[in-house]
Every structure is written in structure tokens, then in C-alpha cells.
Amino acid sequence: MIQRATAVLSLLLAACAPLPTLTRAPDGILHDELFAAPARPVDAGQVFALSEAMKKYAREELASQQYKGARQVLIDAVSHGQLKLEYDSVMTRNAAEAFEAKAGNCLSLVIMTAAFAKAMNIEVQYNSALFGDQWSRDSNVYFLNGHVNVTLGKRPQDPKVLYDQAELMTVDFLPGSDIRGFRSVPVGEDTIVAMFMNNRAAEALVRGKLDDAYWLAREGIRQSPEYWAAYNTLGVVYLRHGNPELAEPVFRRVLQSDPSNTRALANLALTLGRLGRDADAAAVDRQLARVEGDAPFHNFTAGLAAMEAGDFKGARNLFRKEARRAPEYHEFHFWLGLAELRLGNIDEARNEFSLALEASTTPRDHDLYASKLARLSTLHR
């Protein structure tokens, strides 16, 4: 079971199976009076807005290649290195910020691509990928990560090129994995904007910016009232703000739509515990255990405790279980490498640090794992 000291957030997830369509947040969910104004205005209109630098790039670089067809020009720019984009999950950027940084997570890069596509009159379809739960963590907050990509249509007036093109082409920015075989479902632009706001809210939470997190989650709900991940984030904001009595109806609203939503169940159990309703919390914990089995990071947390106790063999076995469950998550390989290193297994440690480096999604993690590998290389000189 997820320990009660931990909140669970959702990133980039498509809406759960809906109840009758919502056009606004349910009554009693929002409490603006408790929160100060955000540090920066929360403006959904800026998510896809082109900066002057983007307009110049479209005018001077993309327009000069129109003989290939607008869609192919854009695909070449974002997929074949012309923009020299890097995957970076450290923050969610809007279109202009992603273009300036030449980096972003999958949502940021999809938004930037779509912004150019709309300016070039290219049809856009957003997709949310359906694959097993992918978890990560930051500052004792656990995230259930989703994934989005973008499909570009071909305009009827596009010129013919030397070969036939498919009517639809999907651009995907998923790092380190083969995307073939992933099923996906189309989502509307309102959901993409809600995802953006929810991601920004989660990032604000990690930084302790509760006022910012509230207004961002609120805007996510306003943009897409059936995007349940934003409700989950809102409930966590209330918990962190010291208002568990306000968090409970938010999590229960999510569970009305999706009774098996593990994030809402975990957070509801935490909320009930904060309210002193231990019997109710235990009942929700049992429901969560039936739905989920071992909680994400259960073996990882136990492995950390084993490392601290000096039981490096036991830690290695626990980290191996997590690495088998989620082989694409860098931190499992990193700690498995540390355990192998403490056991004197240099080659095994080097292999795990290499896997961690390959799976890293931020410059900070990349540099950490690269430095570990560099130090190991000196041991055999």
C-alpha cells in the first residue's frame, strides 16, 4: 500500500470513463478565497501562442522549403534534428518556451509542434497513449506519468512530392522506447490545455508553491471539466494547504467516475487518516490493495532502507524487482548500480549506471549518472 506520508499526482493522463458530460466544475470543489493570486497570470491563451522568434523561424526557415509540402517541412524540422530538440522532463513548457529552450517533455514538444502546424494550416490531432502505469517521484511526491503525441494531416492543396505520403503521420517524442504497438485514443485540444495546466500545477506543488498550484489546477478543470487528473492535483493542493476536509469531496468526485482510480484511492486514504477517521482510511487502503497489489516504489523504498542498514544484497534484490517492473525508469537502475558497487561488482554496477544514463530525462540526472560512470572507468585503469 502507498504510505500515508505520500501524495500521488497524475501527469499527462487522458480523462477517465466519464459520467454525463460536465461543462463546469461541480459545486463546492473550488475555494478561491483560500489562495493568494499566482506569481504569474494563468493564461490558457499563451499555451499555443507563437513568439516573435517562432514567427521568424516559420517565415524564414519553414516557408523556404514549401516545395516539400507544409507537413513534411514541419516533420523534418521537429523529427530530423533541424531544430535540435532535446527531451527534458524537468518542466512543462508552452510552445514559445519549448522553442526558446529547444527542449521539453513530450507534452511541451507536442504543443510546440501543434502551434507551428496550426500556423501552417496543417490539420492536427492529439493522441493519448495507452500503456501500463509508468511511475516517477520527486520530493516525496509520486507521479503517474502518461504520454501524448500529435498526428498531422495532409492538406488537399499540398503539392505532390516524389513519393506517396500517408494521409496521416504521427510525430512522437517518447525517449528511450519503441512506440510501436502502443494503442492511443484521440483527445481534444481542451484536454491538452488541461494536461498542461495540471503538469504546471504538479511542478508548482513540488516547489512548495501552493497558491500557483491551486490556480493552475483550477484552470485545468475549467478547460476540461472531465479531466480527472486535475481534480486529483487540486485535492493534493488542499491536503498540502492543511484542508483535508476540502480534499475529501474532490477525491470522492473522481471515484464516482472511476472507482478503480488508484491515485484518488491512495489520496483519499491519506485524507481520511488526516481527518482522524482511521477505520474509513483502512477500508480505502484495503480497496486500494485489491485494485493495485504492491504499491509503486514499494520495493524501492524497502531497498533504500536496506541500503541504509548495510544490507546491500537485500537491497540489490529489491531494486532488481523494481527494475524488472519498470525497466525504463532511470532511478531504479541507478540504485541497483549503487548496490552492485557496494557488493564489489564493478561490471554489473557499470551496466546499471549505463542503463540509468540511457533512460535519464533531465540534464541533472544525465550529468549525475555520467559522473558515476566516469568514476567507475578509473577503477580499471
Characteristic key phrases:
alpha/beta, four-stranded antiparallel β-sheet, Serine Threonine Protein Phosphatase 5, Tetratricopeptide repeat, C8orf32 fold
Order of strands across the main sheet: 8-7-4-9
Helix content: 40-55%
Task: Provide the number of structural domains.
Answer: 3
Distance between the termini: 46 Å
**Poorly predicted tracts of residues:** 1-21, 155-165
Which CATH architecture of the largest domain? Roll
Q: How many beta-strand elements?
A: 9
Number of helices: 15
Integer average pLDDT = 79
Shape: globular
DSSP strand content? 5-15%
CATH T-level topology of the largest domain: C8orf32 fold
The major sheet is characterized as: 4 strands, antiparallel
Which structural class is indicated by helix and strand composition? alpha/beta
Q: What is the CA-atom radius of gyration, in angstroms?
A: 22 Å
- Along the chain, the helix and strand elements come as EHHEHEHEEEEEEHHHHHHHHHHH
The level 1 CATH classification of the largest domain is: Alpha Beta
Q: What would you say about this model in short?
A:
This protein has 15 helices and 9 strands.
